[in-house]
C-alpha cells in the first residue's frame, strides 16, 4: 500500500487516467447552484473568474459563463483542458499545477471547487499565498474542504483517491492572515451533497 504522500502525488495521474469516465460520472446536475449564486452575487458584472481545477468546464464554469462572466480555467489534465477548450473556445484554459502557476493577472473571483482538498495539508497552507497573489481588493474566494483536520482516502474507479483538510480554525486563520474575511462557511452542507464550503472576500 502506498503511503499518504505517494497517494497525494498520484491524484493528477488518476484524473488523467479516468478523465472521460469521471466527466460522465460527474454529470451536468448543478447541486452547487445556491453556493455559486451567492459567490456571483458578490461579484461585479462581467467579472473574470479563476477556476482552479476547472475539469471539462461543465457544469460549473459553464454556469459562470452563462451568467455573463469570463473564466480562466486551470487544470492539471491535458484532456480536461482539451474538453474545456472544445466546450468554450472563447475562454482561457491552461494546463498547469495550481500550486505553481504564475498568471501575472488578478481576478474578481477565485474558485477551487472539489480540487483544493486533494492537496496535502502543507500544500493547502501554501495555496493561501497563491490565492492572495491572484486577488485584488474585494476579490471573492470560494473553495471546498473536508470538515475536520486529517487525511482520508476515497475511491475513484478502484483507485485510492487522496483527500486532506486542515482544522476549520486553521482555515479561518490562514484566510485572515492573507487578507480574506469569511462571509459564510457550512460544514457538510446537506443541501449541497454534503460539501464543506468556504466563501470569503479580500478586504
Automatic annotation (TrEMBL):
GO molecular function: methyltransferase activity
Residue ranges annotated for the Methyltransferase domain, each copy included: 49-131
Keyword Methyltransferase listed: yes
Biological process, per Gene Ontology: methylation
UniProt keyword terms in alphabetical order: Methyltransferase, Transferase
Protein known as: Class I SAM-dependent methyltransferase
Amino acid at each position: 500500500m502506498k503511503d499518504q504522500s505517494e497517494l497525494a502525488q498520484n491524484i493528477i495521474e488518476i484524473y488523467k487516467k479516468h478523465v472521460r469516465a469521471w466527466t460522465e460520472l460527474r454529470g451536468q446536475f448543478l447541486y452547487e447552484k445556491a453556493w455559486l449564486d451567492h459567490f456571483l452575487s458578490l461579484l461585479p458584472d462581467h467579472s473574470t473568474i479563476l477556476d482552479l481545477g476547472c475539469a471539462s468546464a461543465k457544469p460549473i464554469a459553464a454556469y459562470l459563463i452563462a451568467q455573463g462572466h469570463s473564466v480562466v480555467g486551470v487544470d492539471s489534465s491535458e484532456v480536461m483542458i482539451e474538453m474545456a477548450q472544445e466546450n468554450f473556445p472563447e475562454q482561457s484554459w491552461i494546463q498547469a499545477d495550481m500550486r505553481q502557476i504564475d498568471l501575472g493577472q488578478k481576478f474578481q473571483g477565485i474558485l477551487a471547487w472539489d480540487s483544493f482538498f486533494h492537496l496535502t495539508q502543507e500544500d493547502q497552507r501554501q495555496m493561501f499565498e497563491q490565492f492572495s497573489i491572484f486577488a485584488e481588493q474585494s476579490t471573492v474566494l470560494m473553495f471546498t474542504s473536508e470538515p475536520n483536520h486529517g487525511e482520508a482516502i476515497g475511491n475513484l474507479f478502484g483507485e485510492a483517491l487522496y483527500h486532506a483538510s486542515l482544522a476549520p480554525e486553521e482555515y479561518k486563520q490562514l484566510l485572515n492572515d492573507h487578507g480574506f474575511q469569511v462571509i459564510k462557511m457550512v460544514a457538510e452542507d446537506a443541501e449541497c451533497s454534503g460539501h464543506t464550503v468556504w466563501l470569503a472576500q479580500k478586504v
